[in-house]
Amino acid sequence: MTLYEYPLNERVRTYLRLEHLFLRLSLLMARTEPLDHHYALATIFEVMDVASRADLKSDALKDLDKQKQTLNSYRGNPAIAENVLDAVVAQIDQCFTNLNNQTGKAGHSLTENDWLMSIRSRINIPGGTCEFDLPTYYAWQQKPAAQRQADLQRWAQTLSPLAEAIHLLLKMLRETGGAQKVVASNGQFQQILPQGRTFQLLRLSIDPLLALIPEISGNRLMVSIRLLQHQSDDRLQPSHQDAAFELTLCS
Protein backbone atom coordinates (compact mmCIF):
# COMPACT_ATOMS: atom_id res chain seq x y z
CA MET A 1 0.00 0.00 0.00
CA THR A 2 1.16 3.53 -0.77
CA LEU A 3 0.63 5.90 2.15
CA TYR A 4 -0.22 9.58 1.70
CA GLU A 5 -0.49 12.02 4.60
CA TYR A 6 -2.28 15.35 4.58
CA PRO A 7 -2.06 17.89 7.44
CA LEU A 8 -5.29 19.55 8.54
CA ASN A 9 -3.59 22.52 10.21
CA GLU A 10 -0.47 24.60 9.66
CA ARG A 11 1.37 23.34 12.74
CA VAL A 12 1.20 19.69 11.64
CA ARG A 13 2.16 20.79 8.12
CA THR A 14 5.38 22.22 9.55
CA TYR A 15 5.99 19.09 11.65
CA LEU A 16 5.64 16.86 8.56
CA ARG A 17 8.03 19.02 6.55
CA LEU A 18 10.61 18.83 9.32
CA GLU A 19 10.17 15.07 9.67
CA HIS A 20 10.75 14.72 5.92
CA LEU A 21 13.94 16.77 6.15
CA PHE A 22 15.26 14.93 9.22
CA LEU A 23 14.71 11.57 7.51
CA ARG A 24 16.53 12.78 4.41
CA LEU A 25 19.38 14.11 6.56
CA SER A 26 19.89 10.80 8.37
CA LEU A 27 19.96 8.89 5.08
CA LEU A 28 22.45 11.26 3.45
CA MET A 29 24.76 11.43 6.45
CA ALA A 30 25.06 7.64 6.51
CA ARG A 31 26.46 7.63 2.98
CA THR A 32 30.09 8.36 2.12
CA GLU A 33 30.14 10.24 -1.19
CA PRO A 34 30.98 13.98 -1.12
CA LEU A 35 27.86 14.71 -3.19
CA ASP A 36 25.67 13.02 -0.56
CA HIS A 37 27.30 15.13 2.14
CA HIS A 38 26.78 18.27 0.07
CA TYR A 39 23.04 17.59 0.06
CA ALA A 40 23.16 16.63 3.74
CA LEU A 41 24.55 20.08 4.50
CA ALA A 42 21.91 21.65 2.24
CA THR A 43 19.28 19.76 4.23
CA ILE A 44 20.62 21.15 7.51
CA PHE A 45 20.15 24.63 6.07
CA GLU A 46 16.61 23.73 4.97
CA VAL A 47 15.78 22.59 8.50
CA MET A 48 17.09 25.89 9.83
CA ASP A 49 14.88 27.77 7.37
CA VAL A 50 11.74 25.82 8.33
CA ALA A 51 12.58 26.05 12.04
CA SER A 52 13.06 29.80 11.86
CA ARG A 53 9.33 30.28 12.51
CA ALA A 54 9.16 32.22 15.77
CA ASP A 55 6.54 30.11 17.54
CA LEU A 56 7.68 26.64 16.42
CA LYS A 57 9.57 25.80 19.61
CA SER A 58 6.76 27.01 21.87
CA ASP A 59 4.18 25.08 19.81
CA ALA A 60 6.19 21.87 20.15
CA LEU A 61 6.62 22.40 23.90
CA LYS A 62 2.88 23.04 24.32
CA ASP A 63 2.04 19.90 22.33
CA LEU A 64 4.42 17.79 24.42
CA ASP A 65 2.87 19.11 27.61
CA LYS A 66 -0.64 18.47 26.28
CA GLN A 67 0.27 14.87 25.42
CA LYS A 68 1.70 14.38 28.92
CA GLN A 69 -1.50 15.69 30.54
CA THR A 70 -3.62 13.44 28.35
CA LEU A 71 -1.58 10.37 29.28
CA ASN A 72 -1.61 11.21 32.98
CA SER A 73 -5.41 11.35 32.84
CA TYR A 74 -5.35 7.60 32.08
CA ARG A 75 -3.71 6.73 35.41
CA GLY A 76 -5.79 4.35 37.48
CA ASN A 77 -7.50 2.90 34.40
CA PRO A 78 -7.29 -0.92 34.72
CA ALA A 79 -7.00 -1.24 30.93
CA ILE A 80 -3.76 0.79 30.94
CA ALA A 81 -0.38 -0.74 31.85
CA GLU A 82 1.18 1.70 34.32
CA ASN A 83 4.76 0.72 33.47
CA VAL A 84 4.20 1.44 29.76
CA LEU A 85 2.49 4.71 30.64
CA ASP A 86 5.41 5.72 32.88
CA ALA A 87 7.91 4.96 30.09
CA VAL A 88 6.06 7.11 27.55
CA VAL A 89 5.63 10.00 30.01
CA ALA A 90 9.35 9.81 30.83
CA GLN A 91 10.15 9.99 27.10
CA ILE A 92 7.94 13.08 26.75
CA ASP A 93 9.63 14.67 29.79
CA GLN A 94 13.06 14.04 28.29
CA CYS A 95 12.08 15.55 24.93
CA PHE A 96 10.51 18.55 26.67
CA THR A 97 13.61 19.17 28.81
CA ASN A 98 16.05 18.84 25.90
CA LEU A 99 14.04 21.19 23.69
CA ASN A 100 13.34 23.68 26.45
CA ASN A 101 17.02 23.86 27.39
CA GLN A 102 18.07 24.66 23.83
CA THR A 103 18.96 28.32 23.43
CA GLY A 104 17.28 30.08 20.52
CA LYS A 105 15.91 28.39 17.44
CA ALA A 106 17.10 25.05 16.07
CA GLY A 107 20.56 25.42 14.56
CA HIS A 108 20.99 28.94 15.94
CA SER A 109 24.57 28.22 17.02
CA LEU A 110 25.47 27.37 13.42
CA THR A 111 24.72 30.94 12.34
CA GLU A 112 27.83 32.00 14.25
CA ASN A 113 29.99 29.82 11.99
CA ASP A 114 31.07 32.18 9.21
CA TRP A 115 32.34 29.33 7.04
CA LEU A 116 29.01 27.49 7.13
CA MET A 117 27.09 30.71 6.51
CA SER A 118 29.24 31.46 3.46
CA ILE A 119 28.16 28.08 2.05
CA ARG A 120 24.54 28.69 3.01
CA SER A 121 24.52 32.00 1.14
CA ARG A 122 25.57 30.32 -2.11
CA ILE A 123 24.09 26.83 -1.91
CA ASN A 124 20.78 27.83 -3.53
CA ILE A 125 22.50 29.62 -6.41
CA PRO A 126 22.67 27.26 -9.44
CA GLY A 127 26.27 26.04 -9.50
CA GLY A 128 27.09 28.46 -6.70
CA THR A 129 29.30 26.07 -4.73
CA CYS A 130 31.87 25.30 -7.42
CA GLU A 131 35.48 25.02 -6.30
CA PHE A 132 36.39 28.44 -7.75
CA ASP A 133 33.60 30.08 -5.72
CA LEU A 134 34.17 28.21 -2.44
CA PRO A 135 37.65 26.63 -2.49
CA THR A 136 37.59 25.89 1.25
CA TYR A 137 34.29 24.01 0.86
CA TYR A 138 35.75 22.08 -2.08
CA ALA A 139 38.74 21.17 0.12
CA TRP A 140 36.37 19.94 2.86
CA GLN A 141 34.65 17.67 0.32
CA GLN A 142 38.01 16.03 -0.43
CA LYS A 143 38.51 14.97 3.19
CA PRO A 144 37.99 11.34 4.26
CA ALA A 145 34.35 10.32 4.51
CA ALA A 146 34.63 9.59 8.24
CA GLN A 147 35.84 13.12 8.93
CA ARG A 148 33.03 14.65 6.89
CA GLN A 149 30.50 12.45 8.69
CA ALA A 150 31.86 13.56 12.07
CA ASP A 151 31.51 17.21 11.06
CA LEU A 152 27.97 16.68 9.80
CA GLN A 153 27.07 14.82 13.00
CA ARG A 154 28.41 17.69 15.08
CA TRP A 155 26.44 20.27 13.11
CA ALA A 156 23.27 18.16 13.06
CA GLN A 157 23.49 17.68 16.83
CA THR A 158 22.21 21.25 17.26
CA LEU A 159 18.96 20.10 15.59
CA SER A 160 18.54 16.89 17.64
CA PRO A 161 16.20 18.24 20.38
CA LEU A 162 13.74 19.47 17.78
CA ALA A 163 14.05 16.27 15.71
CA GLU A 164 13.30 14.07 18.73
CA ALA A 165 10.29 16.18 19.72
CA ILE A 166 8.83 16.19 16.20
CA HIS A 167 9.33 12.43 15.84
CA LEU A 168 7.58 11.71 19.14
CA LEU A 169 4.68 14.12 18.54
CA LEU A 170 3.93 12.71 15.08
CA LYS A 171 4.24 9.13 16.33
CA MET A 172 1.69 9.80 19.06
CA LEU A 173 -0.60 11.68 16.68
CA ARG A 174 -0.61 8.83 14.17
CA GLU A 175 -1.49 6.36 16.91
CA THR A 176 -4.76 8.21 17.66
CA GLY A 177 -6.38 7.18 14.36
CA GLY A 178 -8.25 4.07 13.32
CA ALA A 179 -8.28 3.02 9.67
CA GLN A 180 -11.60 2.74 7.83
CA LYS A 181 -12.15 1.26 4.38
CA VAL A 182 -13.98 3.62 2.02
CA VAL A 183 -14.79 3.78 -1.68
CA ALA A 184 -14.36 6.74 -3.99
CA SER A 185 -17.39 6.65 -6.26
CA ASN A 186 -16.59 7.82 -9.78
CA GLY A 187 -13.15 8.82 -8.51
CA GLN A 188 -14.54 11.22 -5.88
CA PHE A 189 -14.83 10.98 -2.10
CA GLN A 190 -16.05 13.48 0.49
CA GLN A 191 -16.58 13.14 4.21
CA ILE A 192 -17.99 15.66 6.69
CA LEU A 193 -15.97 15.54 9.90
CA PRO A 194 -17.84 15.00 13.17
CA GLN A 195 -18.36 18.08 15.33
CA GLY A 196 -16.73 18.33 18.73
CA ARG A 197 -13.48 16.66 17.69
CA THR A 198 -10.53 18.39 16.05
CA PHE A 199 -8.69 16.23 13.53
CA GLN A 200 -5.11 17.19 12.69
CA LEU A 201 -3.89 14.62 10.19
CA LEU A 202 -5.40 12.54 7.38
CA ARG A 203 -3.67 9.32 6.29
CA LEU A 204 -4.65 7.55 3.08
CA SER A 205 -3.43 4.11 1.99
CA ILE A 206 -4.11 2.94 -1.55
CA ASP A 207 -3.04 -0.07 -3.59
CA PRO A 208 -0.28 1.06 -6.01
CA LEU A 209 -1.57 -1.48 -8.57
CA LEU A 210 -4.58 0.79 -9.09
CA ALA A 211 -2.19 3.44 -10.48
CA LEU A 212 -4.28 6.18 -8.89
CA ILE A 213 -2.98 9.33 -7.20
CA PRO A 214 -5.11 11.06 -4.54
CA GLU A 215 -5.52 14.82 -4.65
CA ILE A 216 -6.49 15.70 -1.07
CA SER A 217 -7.97 18.86 0.38
CA GLY A 218 -9.46 19.36 3.81
CA ASN A 219 -10.13 21.52 6.83
CA ARG A 220 -11.68 21.10 10.28
CA LEU A 221 -15.16 20.62 8.73
CA MET A 222 -14.66 18.17 5.86
CA VAL A 223 -12.21 16.34 3.65
CA SER A 224 -12.38 15.88 -0.10
CA ILE A 225 -10.40 13.43 -2.22
CA ARG A 226 -10.17 13.25 -6.00
CA LEU A 227 -8.37 10.35 -7.66
CA LEU A 228 -6.14 11.08 -10.63
CA GLN A 229 -4.47 8.94 -13.28
CA HIS A 230 -1.05 9.54 -14.81
CA GLN A 231 -1.32 9.61 -18.60
CA SER A 232 1.37 8.59 -21.09
CA ASP A 233 2.04 12.25 -21.94
CA ASP A 234 2.86 12.93 -18.25
CA ARG A 235 -0.40 14.74 -17.62
CA LEU A 236 -2.75 13.93 -14.76
CA GLN A 237 -6.38 13.25 -15.62
CA PRO A 238 -9.30 12.69 -13.21
CA SER A 239 -10.25 9.05 -12.76
CA HIS A 240 -13.91 8.06 -13.12
CA GLN A 241 -13.62 4.55 -11.73
CA ASP A 242 -14.79 3.36 -8.32
CA ALA A 243 -11.78 2.65 -6.12
CA ALA A 244 -11.34 1.49 -2.53
CA PHE A 245 -8.72 2.76 -0.10
CA GLU A 246 -8.09 3.09 3.63
CA LEU A 247 -8.66 6.41 5.37
CA THR A 248 -7.38 7.30 8.83
CA LEU A 249 -8.20 10.51 10.69
CA CYS A 250 -5.89 11.38 13.57
CA SER A 251 -6.62 13.86 16.33
Could you explain how this protein is built, in words?
With 251 residues, this protein is an alpha+beta fold. It has two domains: 164 residues, YacF-like (Orthogonal Bundle); 74 residues, Sandwich (YacF-like), CATH 2.60.440. Helices cover 46% and strands 20% of the residues. It has eight helices and eight strands. The strands form two sheets. Strands 1-4-8-2 form a four-stranded antiparallel β-sheet. The relative contact order is 0.16. The mean pLDDT is 94.
Provide the β-strand percentage band. Answer: 15-25%
Give me the number of helical elements. 8
Which strand order do you get reading across the main beta sheet?
Answer: 1-4-8-2
Give the overall pLDDT as a whole number.
Answer: 94
The ordered H/E elements are: EHHHHHHHHEEEEEEE
CATH topology of the largest domain: YacF-like
Under the CATH scheme, which class of the largest domain?
Mainly Alpha
Q: Tell me the major beta sheet.
A: 4 strands, antiparallel
Shape: globular
Strand tally is: 8
Reported CATH architecture of the largest domain: Orthogonal Bundle
CATH superfamily of the largest domain: YacF-like
